[in-house]
Design a protein that fits this description.
The chain has 351 residues and is α+β, with helices and mostly antiparallel strands. Helices cover 35% and strands 14% of the residues. The longest helix is centred in the first third of the chain and has 31 residues, at 31-61. The radius of gyration is 37 Å and the shape is flat.
Length: 351
């Protein structure tokens, strides 16, 4: 077997099946069909300028306040007509081009052999020889210490690139987490206030089925970044439910006031603020990823990607009847993180 034949076998291990017999299209063998396709394409393309002009006329001539009734639904006339004229113009161009390609353009198949992905042996041998010659010219084989010094210099040069990574933030030690992301300004005796008016909330003013977005009273004393950071952790929702329709575990019997319960407003999935309240089911729905929490059963997850119950804040009332916190949250609020101890979160069956 010759060298050329051997290379052909290596390059084409599977026999070439060849091209299938070419079948003429109907528009190629029937002149009338080809003419019809030609006229159809021209008509579609000729309609585009008409639609474009109609688009401009509609924009200026049809009042924005005009509405059309279509199958008992009302639509803005200008928006509807602009969409129809502009959309149909673009559609006709696309259909015409596809029709042109499938019926009139050349239908002959062409074949081009694919070349080798690897370079020829002669080229690779030449490159290897050039590389060896270049290394020899450096003299590194006779003066090996230069190579070691270069490797050391390049290795140490990585330090200036790594040191600025310290600016990404402090190392998240347990002590630092305890004083930052795991801590809020909630404290014993702090009043719960409306998150818009900052007015304190009386237990007697809340009705069954009502949900109120609230904040700690001391939040409005903060400003700038401190205010934003604390608001992202301390935001709460307060709901009042019929005590006879909710399930309160023994360990949380004194966490509510006549069916008034308080939970973190921050979803435990990725930290979205939530307040979509379903009064009949006592469910709270997160708008981001549809995690659903049962506020009538300690904030447990009943649907969605969230894996932890909403943290509950123990509350009571002061001498004037205003709602106050009995203390801080007993578990960190917000989404999970690697170092978080999830064993402390409330789970189904806990008492």
């Amino acid at each position: 077997m010759s060298v050329e034949t051997s290379k052909d076998v290596e390059r084409f291990p599977i026999p070439n099946p060849g091209l299938e017999e070419h079948v003429e299209r109907f528009t190629d063998v029937d002149k009338a069909a080809g003419d019809r396709a030609y006229h159809q394409i021209v008509m579609m393309l000729a309609s585009v300028p008409v639609l474009a002009i109609a688009f401009v006329v509609v924009y200026f001539a049809v009042p924005k306040e005009t509405y059309l009734s279509v199958f008992a639904d009302r639509y803005n006339a200008q928006n509807l007509l602009l969409g129809l004229t502009g959309g149909l113009a673009v559609l006709l161009i696309g259909v015409a081009v596809i029709h042109w390609a499938r019926t009139l353009m050349s239908d002959e198949e062409m074949v081009e052999d694919r070349h080798f992905a690897a370079s020829p042996d002669a080229d690779r041998e030449e490159i290897a020889a050039d590389l060896a010659w270049g290394i020899e010219q450096t003299g590194i084989a006779r003066r090996g210490m230069i190579g070691k010094a270069l490797a050391g210099a390049l290795g140490v040069l990585a330090l200036p690139a790594l040191v600025p990574l310290a600016d990404l933030g402090p190392w998240p030690t347990a002590e630092l987490r305890k004083e930052t992301i795991e801590k809020t300004i909630w404290a014993p005796g702090m009043r719960l206030v409306n998150d818009v008016t900052y007015q304190p909330l009386k237990a007697s003013d809340l009705e069954v089925g009502q949900l109120v977005n609230a904040q700690p009273e001391k939040l409005h004393d903060l400003h700038g970044t401190a205010f934003q950071v604390e608001k992202s952790k301390s935001s709460i929702i307060i709901v009042r439910m019929d005590p006879n329709t909710i399930k309160i575990p023994e360990s949380r019997k004194d966490w509510h006031v006549g069916g008034i319960l308080c939970y973190s407003k921050i979803c435990t999935h990725v930290g979205c603020p939530i307040s979509l309240w379903e009064q009949q089911t006592h469910h709270l729905l997160c708008p981001c990823h549809q995690s659903t929490f049962d506020l009538g059963n300690s904030g447990l997850v009943v649907f969605g990607p969230a894996a932890r119950a909403l943290p509950q804040l123990a509350i009571t009332t002061d001498a004037e009847g205003y709602l106050i916190a009995k203390g801080p949250f007993t578990v960190p609020v917000g989404p999970s993180y690697f170092e978080r101890d999830s064993s402390l979160d409330f789970k189904e069956g806990d008492q």
